[in-house]
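User: Just a sanity check before I run the rest of the batch. Below are the C-alpha cells for the first item. I only need the designed sequence back.
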C-alpha cells in the first residue's frame, strides 16, 4: 500500500503520546508532591516552639496541606535585617521579638505589609495589630525562683530590689543578655516607680547594673536557659519568660515559680520578612491563628494569653488566673514601651555590648 508521509498527523501523534507520558508521570506516587505548598516559620525554640507546633503548625498542616518547616532564632534584629537586605530571606514568617522589632522593621522597610483580607480587626484587643504585624499572644518577662529553696511560706524575692539584694537573698543570679527589659528591671531595683519608667534613664540603669553584675553568673540568651539554671541550682534567681517557667513546672515537674510583681508585659507577633518566597502561605497561616479556637488551643500548652477577647472569655477561670493578662496579674506589671526602644535600641545595644565586654 502506498502511503504518503503526513507531517501534521505525525506531529499530532507525537503530542498525544507526550501528553499520555506526562500524565502518567504526574500521577506516579513519587511525584504527588509536585507543586506542594510550604512555608518556613521561625520562632524561639524550646517549650514555646513545641507549644506552637501542637497548637498551630500540626493542625494547620492537616487542615490546609501546607507543609510547615521550622527554624529558630533568639530575636536578633540585625540577623533579620541582613537576611532581607541580602534579598534572600530564609524565613517566610517570623515570631517577632519584642514589639520594638516591629516598629523598627516597618520603619526600615524590612517587613512586608499584612494583608488583612479575611481578618476581622475588631475582634482583637487594642494595639494587637499593626500594618506589619499580628499579635497572637501576651507574655511577660518576670522574676523566677526555685520553690525548693523558697517553699510556700518562706519569704522570696518579690521585687527587683529584692533580686538586687544579695545580702538578704544570697546566691547567683541570671539576667537576659539583652538590654530590653533588663534595663527596666535595673531601674526598678534602683527605686524608679513602675509608672515612671519611661523614658528610661539609661545612665542610671547601667549604674544599677554595675551593682548586680558581680552576682550574675549567667547572662542567658535562650528562653529555655533560666528554668534549667534554676532547676540545676546554678543560680538562685533569674529573669525569665513566664511561659517557660510554667511549662518546666507543670510538664517537667521542676520546682519553679514566678513572681508577677514588676513583670514586663509584651506581645508575641507574626511578621513577614520583605521578599518572603511564600508570602501567600504565610498569610494563610496568620489568618489561621486569628481564629479564637486556635488561640485558645495555645493556652493548653503554655500559659500565654490570647489577643482575642472572645478566646479569653472562653477560658476556664483556673486557666485565666495563671495568664499574664489576668485581673490578678496584669495590674502588677508594666507594659514594655516598644516605641521608646524602637527609637533608642541601636544606641543602647551598642553601649550594652561594650558594657558586657568590660565585665
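Assistant: Here's the designed sequence for the first item:
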Amino acid at each position: 500500500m502506498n502511503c504518503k508521509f503526513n507531517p501534521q498527523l505525525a506531529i499530532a501523534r507525537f503530542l498525544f503520546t507526550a501528553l499520555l507520558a506526562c500524565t502518567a508521570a504526574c500521577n506516579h506516587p513519587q511525584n504527588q508532591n509536585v507543586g506542594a505548598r510550604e512555608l518556613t516559620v521561625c520562632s524561639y525554640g524550646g517549650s514555646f516552639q513545641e507549644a506552637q507546633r501542637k497548637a498551630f503548625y500540626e493542625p494547620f498542616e492537616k487542615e490546609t496541606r501546607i507543609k510547615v518547616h521550622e527554624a529558630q532564632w533568639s530575636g536578633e534584629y540585625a540577623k533579620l535585617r541582613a537576611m532581607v537586605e541580602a534579598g534572600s530571606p530564609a524565613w517566610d514568617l517570623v515570631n517577632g521579638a519584642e514589639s520594638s522589632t516591629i516598629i523598627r522593621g516597618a520603619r526600615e522597610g524590612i517587613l512586608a505589609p499584612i494583608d488583612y483580607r479575611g481578618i476581622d480587626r475588631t475582634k482583637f484587643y487594642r494595639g494587637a495589630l499593626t500594618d506589619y504585624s499580628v499579635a497572637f499572644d501576651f507574655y511577660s518577662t518576670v522574676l523566677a525562683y526555685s520553690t525548693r529553696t523558697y517553699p510556700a511560706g518562706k519569704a522570696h524575692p518579690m521585687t527587683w530590689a529584692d533580686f538586687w539584694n544579695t545580702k538578704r537573698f544570697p546566691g547567683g543570679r541570671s539576667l537576659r543578655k539583652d538590654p530590653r527589659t533588663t534595663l527596666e528591671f535595673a531601674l526598678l531595683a534602683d527605686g524608679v516607680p513602675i509608672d515612671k519608667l519611661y523614658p528610661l534613664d539609661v545612665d542610671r540603669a547601667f549604674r544599677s547594673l554595675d551593682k548586680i553584675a558581680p552576682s550574675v553568673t549567667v547572662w542567658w540568651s535562650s528562653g529555655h536557659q533560666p528554668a534549667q539554671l534554676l532547676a540545676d541550682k546554678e543560680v538562685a534567681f533569674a529573669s525569665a519568660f513566664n511561659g517557660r517557667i510554667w511549662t518546666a513546672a507543670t510538664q517537667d515537674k521542676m520546682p519553679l515559680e514566678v513572681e508577677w510583681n514588676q513583670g514586663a508585659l509584651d506581645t508575641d507577633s507574626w511578621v513577614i520578612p520583605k521578599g518572603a518566597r511564600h508570602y501567600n502561605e504565610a498569610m494563610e497561616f496568620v489568618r489561621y491563628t486569628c481564629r479564637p479556637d486556635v488561640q485558645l488551643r495555645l493556652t493548653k500548652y503554655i500559659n500565654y494569653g490570647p489577643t482575642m477577647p472572645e478566646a479569653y472569655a472562653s477560658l476556664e477561670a483556673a486557666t485565666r488566673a495563671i495568664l499574664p493578662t489576668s485581673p490578678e496579674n496584669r495590674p502588677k506589671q508594666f507594659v514594655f514601651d516598644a516605641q521608646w526602644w524602637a527609637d533608642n535600641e541601636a544606641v543602647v545595644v551598642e553601649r550594652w555590648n561594650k558594657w558586657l565586654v568590660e565585665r
